[in-house]
């Protein structure tokens, strides 16, 4: 990756929160994310964290929202809780940006587009949980907004391995470059 192509690239890490990651059993996942994070930092790429969280009382959650209506009143995913923060093993740095979203996709109910435009970011390198949730929603909208996209296949995780495979091997390649973290690290270090 040349310096010119690095200037408009950011690593976007999505929904890597303790309350979400607790639902997945892949002991190698966080170490892989830490490798991608270290490579991005070494290359001088901005790191943007996206988390899903809600205000006390869940004013953003409609009773008609099939995915989030069930958490109303549960205390889960409240922005004031530790479970809604970024996983502590990932060591957010002061220069990183944390974006809070109120829906599945990284752009929905957040100021992500403003942050990206403010930083002249046009290329997003995506990783997150889940592949069929935040990653899929973000790929679709980001492609429609004309962002260049790279999806780190092993930087994404889903509760359904077959859905993950179909998305990373058949769906995402239509709108994004799909790489493994190690392949991307070799590319960004070049």
From TrEMBL:
Sequence intervals crossing the membrane: none
Keyword Hydrolase: yes
Residue intervals of the Isochorismatase-like domain: 9-182
Sorted UniProt keywords: Hydrolase
One term of GO molecular function: hydrolase activity
Matches recorded under SUPFAM superfamilies: Isochorismatase-like hydrolases
Pfam families per record: Isochorismatase
Record InterPro entries: Isochorismatase-like_dom (IPR000868), Isochorismatase-like_hydrls (IPR050272), Isochorismatase-like_sf (IPR036380)
Protein name per Swiss-Prot or TrEMBL: Isochorismatase-like domain-containing protein
Organism: Dyella thiooxydans
